[in-house]
Amino acid sequence: MEKKNVTIKDVARKAGVSVPTASRALAGYGYVKRETREKVLKSAKNLGYQLNFVAKSLRTRKTQTIGYLLPDITNPFYAGIARGIQDVSFTRGYNAIICNNDNDILKTQQLFKMFIRNRVEGVIYSVPFNEALSEIVEIVKNNGIPVVNCYGSTRAPASDVVTGNVSEGCYKATMYLLELGHRDIAFLKVRGSGINARRLEGCKKAFEEFGLHVHPNLVIEADDFTQHSGYLNTKIMFAQSKRPSALFAFNERLAMGVLKAAKELGIVIPNDMSLIGVDDIMAELLEPPLTSVAIPTYEAGRTAASLLFNRVEKGNNELPVRHMLVEELLKIRASTGKADQE
Amino acid sequence: MEKKNVTIKDVARKAGVSVPTASRALAGYGYVKRETREKVLKSAKNLGYQLNFVAKSLRTRKTQTIGYLLPDITNPFYAGIARGIQDVSFTRGYNAIICNNDNDILKTQQLFKMFIRNRVEGVIYSVPFNEALSEIVEIVKNNGIPVVNCYGSTRAPASDVVTGNVSEGCYKATMYLLELGHRDIAFLKVRGSGINARRLEGCKKAFEEFGLHVHPNLVIEADDFTQHSGYLNTKIMFAQSKRPSALFAFNERLAMGVLKAAKELGIVIPNDMSLIGVDDIMAELLEPPLTSVAIPTYEAGRTAASLLFNRVEKGNNELPVRHMLVEELLKIRASTGKADQE
DNA sequence: AAGTAATATGATAACGATATCATAAATAAA
DNA sequence: TTTATTTATGATATCGTTATCATATTACTT
């Protein structure tokens, strides 16, 4: 009653056929007489046989597995992407090995090598830029494994890339603020973030359409994307200069920090100041519900997986490099309003 | 420049040794002369050799992989557990295959069978009870695979179980409310949830210590654990009966729904009513910051993984069944206050 | 110097499946 | 009937490693 470990050999013997015949019967592939197949299937069922996927993988050189590298699965942004990848994978009969790199390059290297050793058929990653990233991604590709970058560093090489129309999303949001009459709009971005830089581009474009320019003093650079950082920078900004009529934070956590600081300072949103965020994970649940640029993480994950499976099926080098965009939408809620009429 | 696919055979040939010797050198196992090892390692490095883990797994019957089944990775509660499992696994050189069942029993069966086919060395699950769950869990166990239940259905069999001291956590929270002078305390639970039933037990115990009883009318059963459900039930309750002086929702989403309903009804928390939640995922970020019973999901995941690896190492049947508790703590914030003095 | 133990290496088998090929039986075509 | 084709089955090789065992070499003991 301990371990059973039924192999196809047992199934074949019990059914009175050879191993290859049993294999064909179970796989439903090639020529097998109807009654033979039934005998084999019955035998398999009786013995409680479960295919050994490890052996199959070795022989067929297909592991039906892909790897996904992200910074941290407890970050809902990445969890959304992960879920999209998992769903597409599940439908195709694949598994995804999901690993956290905690933005640690040493871990990144370890994990990518692990992916290679495990002979994953493809890799998706969503990690920010790092000097050593390009190198290790190149190694993965040299091992014949297609790589898709999903909202990760655009500076690292990949077969295909999925990102949002980040500058357009922010363009729309800024246009919306401008149309509400706001002119003194502050932007809270994270220093060193390539995506945030592109977000700011979109905002500048909107200003230009109004014949205006973003005031450099109103572009604030946070050290990181934590709530605390948003809180701190807001406090500092409001202590130093005139309060802007609207604030656009390029990240939801930052926006939550702004919200908290504003509350403490007695600034009522949206009456005293409008606020826009990005991400749209908790936005609807905040007080007030936050107007924000929604990132369709689930769709991004699905798209990345689809691109990857295209390459897995067609052979990596058959296809040209593709760059797919998912649409970031402005969701208008209660944290924005018309500018003061003074 | 296409696929390289370097095997240990190539490494051995280039180093001028036999394959088994190369294997020993690379694994750092058994007798290998110092210079031989160096030759092999150099050869491996030059060729860009990466061990084929599939082949190794087949031979050693160790896949260094475990499976984790959860309802949905985008739910931060499960993401926390997943992260704990992943971290312990990573440290041990294992991978976790994480799969969502969406509370669908058909998927559950498919996924558990997939775990068996993939020859995972252990399985952890966090899924609610379902008639067919016991059956499939039993099949997994019969295949010699240890199973650990982490905050899942306690009615399904498993080698080991990890849960929180759920009734104690709620006992503490209720004691706190009682000590603040509250007597009309409403409880919002989810119908059919075994864990929520145990939570209520803890609350009742606290009442008994005060020589009181929970009023049955003040135990409200929600259909599910969504924010909407919390919102709806609050509206209904407040329309029908006298408003309680405190409300205890056994789930954060429910509590957020209560918060929203209260806001709409002009009920100020905590002045007009105290509110306590469970989970403590976003609690700190809500307005007002929510007093709640914190579930240490990350720790629970780590604990579950540790239990599992004990069995993986020691052999499944060597160890007695263990039930580990992680401590749920009451975090006091701004949503609770003294009862009215009327 | 002889015997024993430790070290080092390789030949062979095995893990559990599928791929490839050869051959036999059944069926269709001439 | 003969030949060609389709269907059915099994023998054998193979995927890339490690386990097991046998043997050769070196290093210690006495």
Jot down its keywords:
homodimer, 342 residues, alpha/beta, 434 Repressor (Amino-terminal Domain), Rossmann fold, 3 domains, six-stranded parallel beta sheet, six-stranded mixed beta sheet, 12 helices, 46% helix, elongated, DNA-binding
Shape of chain A: elongated
Q: Which chains share the greatest interface?
A: A-B, 50 and 50 residues
Kindly state the percentage of residues in helix of chain A. 40-55%
Q: Mean pLDDT of chain A, nearest integer?
A: 94
Q: Do you know the CATH topology of the largest domain in chain A?
A: Rossmann fold
C-alpha termini separation of chain A: 83 Å
Beta-strand percent range of chain A: 15-25%
Write a structural description:
Two copies of one chain form a homodimer. Chain A is of the alpha/beta class and 342 residues long. The first copy, chain A, has three domains: 44 residues, lambda repressor-like DNA-binding domains (434 Repressor (Amino-terminal Domain), Orthogonal Bundle); 131 residues, 3-Layer(aba) Sandwich (Rossmann fold), CATH 3.40.50; 130 residues, Rossmann fold. Chain A has twelve helices and twelve strands. In chain A, the strands form two sheets. In chain A, strands 2-1-3-4-5-11 form a six-stranded parallel sheet, sandwiched between helices. In chain A, helix 9 links the parallel strand 6 and strand 7. The longest helix of chain A has 18 residues. Chain A is elongated and about 85 Å long. Chain A starts with 7 loop residues before the first helix and ends in an 11-residue tail after the last strand. At the A-B interface, helix 4, helix 5, strand 2 and helix 6 of A face helix 4, helix 5, strand 2 and helix 6 of B. Chain A binds a DNA duplex (30 and 30 nucleotides) through helix 2 and helix 4.
